[in-house]
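User: quick one - fold this with coenzyme A bound?
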Amino acid sequence: MGAKLCPKIILEGTRLTRKTDIAFALDEHPRVVGPRKYRYHSPLVSAEWCAFTNFPWGRGLINYAPEEEAQARETYATWARLFELQPYYSWIVDRFHLSTRAFHIQAGRPDPDFAWLEARLVPLGFRHVLCVRRPDTFAAARAERLKVSGNPGQYDDLTPFVREQELLRRLVRASALPHLELDISDLDADAAADRIADWLEATGGLSAPWGVTPAPAPPPADAGAPPLVVPDTFVTARLVAARPRVDDAAAVFAAYAHDATVTRHLSWRTHERVDTVSQYLHGAVDAWARGTGHRAWLLRRRDTGALVGSIGLTQHGPRVEFGYVLARAHWRQGLATEALTWLVDWALAQPGIARAGAVCDVDNPASARVMEKVGMAREGVLRRWMVAPNIGPEPRDCLVYAKIRGA
Ligand SMILES: CC(C)(COP(=O)(O)OP(=O)(O)OC[C@H]1O[C@@H](n2cnc3c(N)ncnc32)[C@H](O)[C@@H]1OP(=O)(O)O)[C@@H](O)C(=O)NCCC(=O)NCCS
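Assistant: Sure. Structure tokens for the protein plus coenzyme A:
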């Protein structure tokens, strides 16, 4: 038996590049999905669905409002999860995260970080097909479209399409996914689908030689409290906290992750290279995208912008646990206390959260003092609780502190 056909194609391109028709043509193409005796549909997914609003031509995964970013991230993470859970199927996607980036860049908003998403799409075998047309052919394409468009006003000015096409070209080229740039100016949808099939055949993109790994286990459901909706950023008197990005790796490495004095009592090994920090940050970004696990912020000085350290939290049902680390240059200025105070107050104000706590190595008096200063009470010693790999393989005793709601 031949290898199963399960290509994964993300069509990108500006409007007027026939992507919808090409998606349908691919979805029935005998070389892409196999010969069929009768018609059936395989998944066509689109980030263009305006599913965030209850009115036509509203907002969705591409043009979400700033306050809908968490919803968009969770939707992308959920799509990624569905792809991971069903890796041996053909998935044809009509615009995805690069269109989102293009939209937000053009709107003058921050460029959303999708490195975490690409890190999940690449092992599944996803590829980009960028549909482009020669700028001089947009006008003719518009004339065709106006016969059927429900929103003709969007085609009045063609310059934005040409500009967006250039931007998408740049984003596709910089993406971690393999890509084909296809000039559809002189092609109909069937001919375009043929070209895509040729490319997939020639480059091994039709079946799954890439050895898809099993989907990771779903996060355990937390009993007893609703999942926290954790703020992306917060600000204290001297600090601003923001979600990490993978491209913060070099700064994190230089500020504290390489420093054996800083990491001595921590649960992770001192980093020797920037790329292991990048790997860690991929996971950290992913936790934010999934809305579960340890959510970490990077802390920067408001006055100088200097990277000070990191603080994070994990929810376990009704309790929240914190971790924090600061670059040595910023120790003993009350900064850890300042950040943790904000988070403890915030956590204990959330519905269902009864306890905010942390643990530290018995030989880490600075951390114990921080917990005391934020109003946590010392509850005892957790014997042989945690391995500090920079000290040795034996689990070590830890002090446990917590502040209780209302106490
Ligand atoms: C623990 C850590 C985050 C504290 O950060 P910080 O910003 O210096 O903390 P603060 O300035 O808010 O408070 C530190 C307190 O500990 C005290 N302290 C510092 N070193 C100490 C030591 N060796 N022995 C006793 N007390 C000490 C400080 O005097 C201060 O208390 P005070 O205000 O009563 O004088 C920082 O030292 C660090 O990053 N350490 C390495 C990573 C780590 O251990 N993280 C915690 C893991 S549980």
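One thing worth noting: The mean pLDDT is 91.
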